[in-house]
Amino acid sequence: MRCPSNKIDALRCNQLLDVAEQLIDKQGVVSFRFAQIAKGAGCSTNTLYKYFESKEDVLVCLFLRNTTSSQIPIFIKENPDLNIYEHAVLSILFTFEVVKRSPIFNILRVVSINSMFWQLASSDKVEILRNRVNLFWSRIKRPLEIAVERGELQATQVEVDDLSQALYFFLAGATSSYQSRLMDEQYFIADDDIGYRHISRLMNHYQWRQPITREMMQGLSARIQVFLDKGHGDIRSCETCLKIGKQSECRQQFNQ
User: Where is the signal peptide (predicted)?
Assistant: First the structure.
């Protein structure tokens, strides 16, 4: 199922996604029904099928329009003074702040990247989802590679790969545990300082010219919070999603 190719269709698609997000917020991912979207938007099921083949298509699109990959480039543009150390932890801290503000984002992330789920979505949606996931990995890995190139980090390619995976797996585990609300405090404490310490340990296990400090991460998180407070309402749109829908465009955007 191809994405909208004109502004009218894009507006209609976004309206349907807004309704779906409201349904999920009220009923949860499992309980809401595909046909409810049409009823909530005041349109026919035929109109709904014009944009989405299934519930899986809708959930993938909701995740895509909420991804931090749509917001981080704008944050970087508004904060051109970020150093390579801040870039190295930006994707991790940015995602933490988004999850705190938008519980539905992490729910969509966990559901959408489950292979038993995304394989049921249409091929076009799967292609964009795959590219978006790989873009996020590149936002973790590429700053580490640049740090090596600039002499700010002494690491082999294998070590860069190891650190990239460690950061991603820590992020995935921490955000999922934070959002589940099931774990007792004796096992998991949702505290920023603890998160900073974990990230510092992961990063400083490798040979940085300067250590990754808690104070630096606190300052960066504060800047991210200010950015998110502004809203940037046009980010969560089909137009923004389509701009970074292709992997080649994603890489070009990231390297600018």
Answer: none
Q: Is residue 103 part of a domain?
A: yes
CB 118 within 8 A of CB 56: yes
Distances (CA, A) of 105 to 65, 84, 173: 10, 27, 15
The residue segments making up the domain with residue 152 are: 65-255
Q: What is the spatial distance between Cα 235 and Cα 231, in angstroms, rounded to a whole number?
A: 9
3-class DSSP state of 122 = coil
Domain harbouring 12, CATH code: 1.10.10.60
**Bridge partner list, 154:** 207
pLDDT truncated to tens, each residue of the chain (256 aa)?
678 778 888 888 989 999 998 998 888 888 889 999 999 999 999 999 999 999 999 999 988 888 887 789 889 999 999 999 999 999 999 998 888 887 777 778 878 878 888 888 999 888 888 888 888 899 999 999 999 999 999 999 999 999 999 999 998 887 776 555 544 554 445 567 888 999 999 999 999 999 999 999 999 999 999 999 887 655 666 667 766 644 444 344 444 4
> CA of 113: how far to CAs of 37, 132, 190, in Å?
22, 11, 23
- What pTM did the predictor assign? 0.82
Q: Are residues 25 and 145 in the same domain?
A: no
Query: Do residues 167 and 181 both lie within one domain?
Result: yes
Report how far Cα 189 is from the mean position of its chain's Cα atoms. Answer: 22
Query: Hunting for tokens 């955000």 — which residue is that?
Result: 175
